[in-house]
Design brief:
The structure holds two protein chains of two kinds. By secondary structure, chain A is an alpha/beta fold. Chain A is built from four helices and six strands; from the N terminus they run ββααβαβαββ. The N terminus and C terminus of chain A are likely disordered. Classes of the chains: A alpha/beta, B alpha/beta.
């Protein structure tokens, strides 16, 4: 404690600036294992020169063939499929998931790749015209280019929170 | 000082709270790409007299692949909340000591 004790007296009102829903998050309400770090949703991003997508269904547009990416995160990729056909992002019913699977299969010929945050650079360069992406990463692309627009799809979208956790061991444990 | 910087500092304070070594302590931080400002790490090192080993990943799976051994050397990582329960089940997480995290009270 002595090593860095001065920092504990600064009294940053950090949690006053945090949305109440993240002060006692449902996944760890006592903050025993995590501190909320950054929250966001997923949406879609396109070049401003194309008609901006505001619907998950727009990511099934054949004109995007070969220049569309979806997240490689299974829950998000299938979640977009579920929302496209009006189902819950959190659906667990086997028949509903089968319908989402068929949507994914129908979209696959259009998809250049299933990627994650690294697609940011391809969006900025223009290699990818539309992508399913975290809002946080999308903002980074927006900051780097005037040609990009981001939308939270009208069918609905998930909210997430990245959290700081400690993997330290022994005397390094938090 | 923005919130990101503060939270990084907060976790860092806790990780070093028990340090007793005379050498400059090192915090090993593995985070999503482009999640802190360019000067955040150097500012943290200057403020806390610590060295930070910092690296980035592009997906939760990339991070999990590194830490799942339980002996990865990373002190602080940033999973999306959906990965916290699996990481807990694998015994990868240490409980936070709120005595060292006054801003959480």
């Amino acid at each position: 404690m002595a090593c860095f004790s001065h920092s504990t007296t600064n009294g940053f009102p950090v949690f006053d600036n945090l949305d109440p829903r993240f002060r006692k998050p449902v996944w760890d309400p006592d903050l025993k294992w995590n501190t909320p770090y950054m929250w966001f949703g997923t949406g879609s991003r396109t070049t401003a020169t194309e008609s901006a997508t505001n619907s998950w269904a727009d990511l099934w547009d054949a004109r995007l063939k070969g220049r569309l990416t979806m997240l490689d995160d299974p829950e998000d990729m299938l979640g977009a499929c579920l929302k496209k056909i009006g189902l819950s992002f959190n659906a667990t019913d086997a028949a509903e998931l089968e319908r989402a699977k068929q949507e994914a299969i129908a979209q696959k010929p259009l998809v250049q790749a299933y990627l994650n945050a690294e697609v940011r650079d391809q969006l900025v360069s223009g290699d990818v015209l539309a992508a399913q992406l975290w809002a946080t990463t999308a903002q980074q692309a927006v900051d780097a280019s005037t040609q990009l627009a981001f939308a939270y799809p009208q069918e609905g979208f998930p909210l997430y929170c990245d959290c700081a956790v400690s993997c330290g061991r022994g005397e390094r444990s938090v | 000082m923005n919130r990101r910087y503060f939270l990084l500092g907060m976790t860092g304070v806790a990780a070093f709270a028990s340090c007793g070594r005379p050498s400059k302590p090192r915090l090993n931080v593995y985070n999503w790409s482009a999640y802190v400002a360019p000067d955040t790490i150097s500012n943290f090192e200057a403020e806390f007299g610590a060295t930070v080993r910092y690296a980035t990943y592009e997906s939760n799976e990339e991070m999990l692949a590194k830490v799942i051994t339980g002996n990865s050397g990373w002190d602080v990582v940033f999973p999306t909340y959906t990965r916290i329960k699996p990481m807990l089940d694998y015994g990868l997480l240490q409980p936070l000591n709120h005595e060292w995290l006054p801003s959480l009270r």
